[in-house]
Design a protein that fits this description.
The protein is an alpha+beta fold. It has a domain of 98 residues: Alpha-Beta Plaits, CATH 3.30.70. It is 38% helix and 29% strand. The protein has 5 helices and 5 strands; from the N terminus they run E-H-E-E-H-E-E-H-H-H. Strands 4-1-3-2-5 form a 5-stranded mixed β-sheet. Strand 2 and strand 3 form a beta hairpin. The longest helix is centred in the N-terminal third of the chain and has 19 residues. It is globular. The chain starts with 6 loop residues before the first strand and ends in a 7-residue tail after the last helix.
């Protein structure tokens, strides 16, 4: 029998729709996510990297998968690709109902060790570069919008 209290985490990337107004949409996403995620105890981070979203969601499996279904229907992005999912022992982003970071600014990328934004998208091993980015962000949470 499966442990219903076990935490579940999903990491995905998607392409941002050209018609998306990032400043307005990121603010709306953060406000709505803060309220909704708090109700179901989901935490995570949403990273906007030029034309790409990278997001981690963590919480109970049922709630995370229900939210993923909703996210997959959102017209602000397409080509959603799950990079990693599975059970975890501890939350990585437990203090964020939804941290949001817009890395379209080159200086922020330089601050966490990227030479330019194409590095994440064009590296041979995208999964390694995404994990590197997330690790660096978890070490430098001051870059996040609270």
């Amino acid at each position: 029998m499966q442990d219903k209290t076990k935490l579940y985490q999903v990491l995905y990337v998607s392409q941002i729709t050209q018609t998306t107004d990032l400043i307005v949409d990121l603010d709306q996403i953060q406000q709505k996510s803060f309220i909704n995620n708090k109700k179901v105890n989901i935490t995570g981070i949403l990273i906007c990297l030029e034309d790409t979203f990278v997001q981690i969601l963590e919480g109970k499996k049922k709630e995370v998968l229900t939210l993923m279904k909703t996210i997959s229907l959102d017209k602000r992005h397409y080509n959603l690709n799950i990079i990693q999912q599975g059970c975890i022992n501890n939350r990585c982003w437990g203090h964020w109902n939804m941290g949001v970071l817009n890395l379209s600014i080159r200086k922020k990328l330089l601050d966490i060790g990227f030479e330019n934004s194409e590095l994440l998208i064009n590296r041979i091993n995208k999964e390694s570069s995404i994990m590197f980015l997330l690790k660096r962000l978890s070490e430098n949470k001051s870059l996040l919008i609270k």
